[in-house]
Amino acid sequence: MAAAEVADTQLMLGVGLIEKDTNGEVLWVWCYPSTTATLRNLLLRKCCLTDENKLLHPFVFGQYRRTWFYITTIEVPDSSILKKVTHFSIVLTAKDFNPEKYAAFTRILCRMYLKHGSPVKMMESYIAVLTKGICQSEENGSFLSKDFDARKAYLAGSIKDIVSQFGMETVILHTALMLKKRIVVYHPKIEAVQEFTRTLPALVWHRQDWTILHSYVHLNADELEALQMCTGYVAGFVDLEVSNRPDLYDVFVNLAESEITIAPLAKEAMAMGKLHKEMGQLIVQSAEDPEKSESQVIQDIALKTREIFTNLAPFSEVSADGEKRVLNLEALKQKRFPPATENFLRHLAAAEQMLKI
Fold first, then answer.
1. HSE-up of 271 (CA within 13 Å, CB side)?
2. What GO terms describe the biological role, i.e. biological process, of this protein (predicted)?
3. Per-residue pLDDT reduced to its tens digit, 270-280
4. Are residues 78 and 131 in the same domain?
C-alpha cells in the first residue's frame, strides 16, 4: 500500500451511533473504539436529535480540542427493520478536516444500519476504511478514501458568495485572519454558519490552516474554555446570545443581518488604511469577475497577501540566536509608512511571531 494511503487511513478516530426511540428518548447506543464521557456529551449536544426545536440537520461538522466530528442524521422510514427507532445519527471523529469525505462515508454507514439494524456491518466497514482506505458494497455504495483530497475540502467554500454579501467589508475579515484575531460568526441556521465559516481560512491561503475553524460551537463552559485556549479562530454559533459575549471575539459577523462589527479592544490593531483599501478592491474585483473560478480568486488574494509579506521583508533580520526572522522596528519606523500601514505591519509581525520579546 502506498505511504500516502497509509497516512490517510490513520486519520479516523472513532465511530458512534445515537438513536431517538419512539418515546422521544435520545440515547448513545454504541461506539467503536471507546470514547470519553466529555466527548460523548459533546456529540449528543451537537446531534440535532437532542434539540428542542425538532429541526432535522442531515449533516453537521465541527472541531473540539483538535478532534473533528462529523454527524449524519436520518429519519427511519416505516419499512425499516428498526421498529422502535424514529431517527438515528452516525458520528465519525477524525484528525482531519474533510466534510465531503466523511459525509459520503457516514451516508453509507446509515444505509447499512437501516438495512441490517445492527452495528456489526458498520464496524466492519469502518475497520476496512481504517486499514485499507476502502469499503465496497453493492447495495450501499462504495467509498474510497483517496477520492477525497484535503485540498479539495479547502477549496469547497465560496469566497464569491462572501464578497457578494459583504463587498469591501470582506477586507475586515481578511485583516482579522492575517492578524490571527478571533472571529465569531452568528446565524440561526447551522448550515449557513458552516458554509460561511469553512470558507474563511481560504482568505489566508498561504497558511492552509483549517485548525482555526470551529464551525459549530455551543455556549457551553467546556467548549468555550477549549475555544479560548486558541490564539485566533473562526467560530460559528446559532445562538444570538453570543453577541453579548465580547470576551469571545475581536470581530463579530451577524450573517443573518449582513453586519460585521469590530470589538472596541480590537479597533487599534484593525485600523484600516491605504494598504487595506487596495486589498479590499482587489478582493472585490477578483470575486466579481464572472470569468474567474473560486480557486483563481483565492490565488489572486494569496498573491496580493504575499506582496504584504514582501513589504515586511526589508525590515526583518535574523534573530540573535539565528532561529528565525524578527522585525527591526526602528527600520520600519524610518520608512515612514502611513500610520495605518505601519500599525498593521507591526501587528502582522506580532501575529507571525516576528517581534523581539
1. 12
2. endosome transport via multivesicular body sorting pathway; protein transport; regulation of early endosome to late endosome transport
3. 999 999 999 99
4. yes
